[in-house]
Structures are given as C-alpha cells and as structure tokens.
Amino acid sequence: MTEAARARLPWKTFLLCALAWLVPASGHLLLGRRGRALVFALLVATAIAVGYALDGNLHRVVEGQPLSRLATLGAMGMGLPYFLLRWGLGYAGSAAAAGYEYGTVFLLSAGLMNLLLVLDVWDISTGRKE
After folding, report:
1. Quick one: 124 exposed, middle or buried, by C-beta within 10 A (0-12, 13-18, 19+)?
2. Each residue's pLDDT expressed in tens, for the chain with a length of 130 residues
3. pTM of the shown model
C-alpha cells in the first residue's frame, strides 16, 4: 500500500465503500472508473429487475430459521434498492409465481454482487488494485 493511500484510508475509503453499498456502482464512478461503473450498475440493476419481474423472494428474517438472517444480509447487500423494494413498494414476492425460485436467486445475487463491488472499491481506493 502506498503512503498516499494510507493517508486517505481513514475517512475517504470508508465513505466510498458506504456509498458503493448504498448506490450500486457509485464507488467506481467516484473513483473515476466510469466504464466499470456503467457495466456494474447495469449488471446489478438487471439482476434486480429480473428478480422483481419473476416475483422472487426478497429475503427477510424469519424467526426459527437462522439461515434466513444470512440470506437477508445477502439481499440487503444491494443497498438502497433493497429498502426501496421492501418498504417503498412493499414488495415481498409471490411463492405461487412460476419464476419464484429463479427470481429469488436473482435478487440474492444482486445483493451479493454489490457486496463484491464494495470490496473492489476498497481495494482500488487503498491502492491494492490498479
């Protein structure tokens, strides 16, 4: 890690990562990686849109099912879209829908992809990755 990267690590890196989590691909955009930001934003948005269209399950904590906590954290990884779907639109999915299972996988994958993008922003902003 370079000395300049260490100097900006305390607040700028954490702020970039928080923004990257909240708004998918915003961290890459703020780091000047416009091409990557566009591709990643389209990727996460497409996964969310397909999951929504297929009436997939937007995970929430279910008492007595400890793995639901992990699935909820994974889905929350998509940041602001999770909260807009959950509380803004009241979205829950439909278990009777034909694409329910596939939609659930798309929604969970969108959250996990965004979490990986946050880690990528961390690596770029700390100088570990070009």
Report:
1. buried
2. 556 555 556 788 999 999 999 999 999 999 999 999 999 999 999 999 999 999 999 998 899 999 999 999 999 999 999 999 999 998 888 889 999 999 999 999 999 999 999 999 999 988 888 7
3. 0.87
| Closest to 118 (Cα-Cα) out of 9, 11, 10, 21 | 21
Rg (CA), the chain: 16
In 3-state terms, the chain is what percent helix, strand and coil (to 5)? 70, 0, 30
Task: Write the DSSP string, 51-76.
Answer: HHHTT-------TT-THHHHHHHHHH
